[in-house]
Specification:
The chain is of the alpha/beta class. Helix 4 packs parallel to helix 6. The strands form two sheets. The chain has a six-stranded mixed sheet with strand order 1-4-3-5-2-11, sandwiched between helices. A five-stranded antiparallel sheet has the order 8-7-6-10-9, with no helix packed on it. The protein is built from six helices and eleven strands. The N and C termini lie far apart (50 Å). It has one domain: Peptidoglycan recognition protein-like (Lysozyme-like), CATH 3.40.80. The relative contact order is 0.17.
Length: 227
């Protein structure tokens, strides 16, 4: 009788322990939807093992998504983070589209989730000392970063709001798809051979020597290092 009593007490104690349930998963951050049509990406679910960070080299999230929608090339990412930190979702990240442009690496296109951050990227100073985008748009100096990377010294900074949004989005995607960050994240933006790229969180510059997105701004590097 006493054994039965302790069995009941023990079961009660176990039942009171926090259980890992779907409700305890990392919550999805608030997103807004600008959906692409299904012929702009491939609506076939894939196993995801990598997350790749990009920047748009352009204006707003809406303009980038509109450009993707205007082409038949199936080039897109499921997420775009605008300068104010708003996260836009264009399609379910279990699906895929081209976003790397690495010859012979369709497997990586399918296995990776791309995240675009709105930024013009590299800036060029003119004779007056203004910082210009490749479209000749002037970026105020307080919105720029001085950082030597791949032949450029100035960049349109990723905003604090974008960094905060990324800090919410990355853990959600990692939890949903079981993606673990690579143990060695030091200099994760430097080029590595795409064919042998370990699962984890990477940059477009990791797999393309000719790309400059993302540039290793201190805050975004720290965000990835902290995962």
């Amino acid at each position: 009788m006493l054994g039965k009593f302790w069995h009941i007490i023990s079961k009660w104690a176990v039942d009171k322990l926090p259980q890992k349930t779907k409700a305890m998963a990392v919550p999805k951050p608030e997103v807004k939807s600008i959906p692409l049509k299904s012929d702009q990406y491939y609506p076939a679910a894939q196993k995801k093992t990598h997350i790749v960070l990009h920047h748009t080299a352009g204006g707003t999230a809406a303009s980038s998504i509109a450009y993707w929608a205007s082409t038949p090339d199936h080039i897109a990412t499921p997420y775009v983070i605008d300068r104010d930190g708003t996260i836009y979702e264009t399609y379910d990240p279990q699906f895929w589209a081209y976003h790397l442009g690495v010859k012979g690496a369709t497997w990586l296109e399918k296995a990776s989730i791309g995240i675009e951050i709105c930024s013009y990227g590299q800036l060029t100073p003119n004779i007056a000392g203004e910082l210009l985008t490749y479209t000749k748009k002037v970026i105020p100096k307080e919105k720029a970063v001085k950082l030597n990377f791949r032949g450029f010294d100035y960049w349109e900074a990723y905003t604090p709001e974008q960094i905060d949004a990324l800090k919410q989005l990355l853990p959600y995607l990692m939890d949903r798809f079981g993606i673990k960050p690579q143990a060695d994240r030091k200099n994760f933006w430097e080029y590595r051979e795409p064919k042998t790229l370990p699962p984890g969180i990477w940059s477009h510059t990791t797999v393309r020597k000719d790309k400059v997105d993302i540039f290793p701004q201190k805050e975004i590097v720290e965000a990835v290092y902290s995962l």
